[in-house]
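User: Could you go from structure to sequence for me? I need the amino acid at each position, not a summary. Structure tokens:
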């Protein structure tokens, strides 16, 4: 039998008297905000999803200011959202057909290594699931990466 209650267990204890904004009959409860408050109460700091864009242009040469803004330590050309959208717009204005894709991005709190895709998603989930999740290693070689800092020496493409 399916659970007919759509409210998560952590949020069930939230009453309307606790939050004045929930008193209005036309306003739906904000479960995401309540979930973040519940996580904070458990000692877990909620983390946001960060995304990087890999953009490939066709008709323009990438300007130096955008090259300098690319994320260091990753193979390829990865940009944050606003800068990537600016590059896409510049290429389209010059008649090009840029291609791009996005991936989740995080930095390991232990070694500082940049993580992409599934590895970043697992790291974010670990950080939000456990109170000490941010202090757990990102992988088998986290301690070696922490000492060598090889990823910092990689140059942006």
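Assistant: Here is the amino acid at each position, in order:
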């Amino acid at each position: 039998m399916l659970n007919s209650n759509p409210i998560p267990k952590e949020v069930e204890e939230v009453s309307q008297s606790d939050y004045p904004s929930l008193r209005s009959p036309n306003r739906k409860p904000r479960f995401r905000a309540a979930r973040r408050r519940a996580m904070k109460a458990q000692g877990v700091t909620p983390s946001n999803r960060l995304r990087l864009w890999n953009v490939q242009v066709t008709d323009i040469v990438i300007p130096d200011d955008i090259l300098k803004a690319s994320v260091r330590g990753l193979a390829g050309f990865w940009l944050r959202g606003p800068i990537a959208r600016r590059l896409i717009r510049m290429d389209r204005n010059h008649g090009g057909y840029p291609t791009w894709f996005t991936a989740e991005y995080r930095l390991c709190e232990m070694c500082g290594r940049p993580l992409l895709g599934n590895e970043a998603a697992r790291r974010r989930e670990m950080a939000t699931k456990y109170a000490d999740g941010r202090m757990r290693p990102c992988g088998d070689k986290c301690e070696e990466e922490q000492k060598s800092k090889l990823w910092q020496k990689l140059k942006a493409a």
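One structural detail worth keeping in mind: The chain has a mean pLDDT of 78.
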